[in-house]
Amino acid sequence: MFNDDKERKLCIICSKGTLDMAYPGLVLANAALMEGIDVTLFFTFWGLDIINKKKMNKLKFVPIGNPSMPIPNAIGGLPGMTNVATAVMKREIKHLDFPEIDEFLEMIHDAGGKMYACKMSVDMFGDMYMMKEEDIADVVEAVVGATDFMEMSEDAQIIFI
Q1: What's the predicted TM-score (pTM) here?
Q2: How far apart are the C-alpha atoms of 110 and 44, rounded to whole Å?
Q3: Is the pLDDT confidence value at 76 over 80?
């Protein structure tokens, strides 16, 4: 099944900063760490919101444009529906006893997971959205370029979220 002679590595690229896109990467990272797999998370583009101290626990779930939502887009686009959908999702996350984003990141870090922010995205969003490196969660080891990430991800299974 798996080659036990070779250390397993998993790299997860987190590119989206909504509540429903943050948890899959964090859950997979945590599960992999529990299995003894070396884990690296790379946050790029909107995924930077997951590691932004000001935004990480305020991520939203946007129902409009989601074909899996059991409501029509016309209803999902009504004022206040994003807040309602976000509240429902947060209630379910809490019911399942999953931690908030900041706590989840800390757990992953404490278990040996490595986290990096994409330099190009930090530079771009710094100009566009006034994000600074000091806004990045302390558990993030560094801001690195794509070529650095290519080196880190050599021989790893890569998941893009």
Answers
A1: 0.89
A2: 22
A3: no
